[in-house]
């Protein structure tokens, strides 16, 4: 596709599109055909309803667990209270998280709200957790779809760059690390400061998203 065609497609809609960071991350993980399907799913999905958000109780619970310094029993109780269909997955995720934080010095701080903006796309990037882990501050976005799919730093690169480049409501120290946390595996994926190549790759992903959005 010629640059002029891409530019024309980007100008089709003057209204800025807004999506969540998990949606953007899912998009970046896909191949060419999968990207189109993912954008179609995002564009035409039903309005968000918390009742149908599979992981919301645990997502909120992990934040509260750290913010309020609750005991491990609090997280385990979330799995016990989950519906029978969810209990196995919830318990596995809770156990993975407790294993991850075991023997680590964990200190909560308020992460604040954040967005990342390109010319035509806004990504709501607010991390759920602000944690100092063994003294190193991290802004952590929880990701709950990594049970069966391999997720590594290279796959998360654009999302990590986006989190690093987001505008926050709270000023953070320059040494803070953006991170994607694969909850079901208890694996934290963090990155160093973004390079120019990382920024170019992020903008390219955002532009590709909008090209597909305006075509379907």
What can you see in these coordinates?
This protein is α+β, with helices and mostly antiparallel strands. 45% of the residues lie in helices and 19% in strands. The protein is built from 8 helices and 9 strands. The protein has helices at 3-10, 21-29, 32-43, 56-67, 72-81, 84-101, 157-164, 196-215; strands spanning 17-20, 106-108, 114-117, 121-124, 129-133, 136-143, 167-168, 177-182, 187-190. The strands form 2 sheets. It has a 5-stranded mixed sheet with strand order 2-5-6-8-9, with helices on both faces. A 4-stranded mixed sheet has the order 1-4-3-7. The longest helix is centred in the C-terminal third of the chain and has 20 residues, at 196-215. It is globular and about 50 Å long. The model has no long low-confidence stretch (mean pLDDT 91).
Which class best fits the helix and strand makeup? Answer: alpha+beta
**Large-scale geometry:** globular
CA gyration radius, whole angstroms: 18 Å
The largest sheet, given as strand count, sense and whether it forms a barrel, is: 5 strands, mixed
Provide the β-strand percentage band: 15-25%
Percentage of residues assigned to helices: 40-55%
The helix count comes to 8
End-to-end Cα distance, whole Å, is 16 Å
Calculate the mean pLDDT score and round it: 91
Give, in spatial order, the strands making up the sheet with the most strands.
Answer: 2-5-6-8-9
Low-confidence stretches: none
* DSSP, total strands: 9
List the secondary-structure elements in sequence, H or E.
Answer: HEHHHHHEEEEEHEEEH
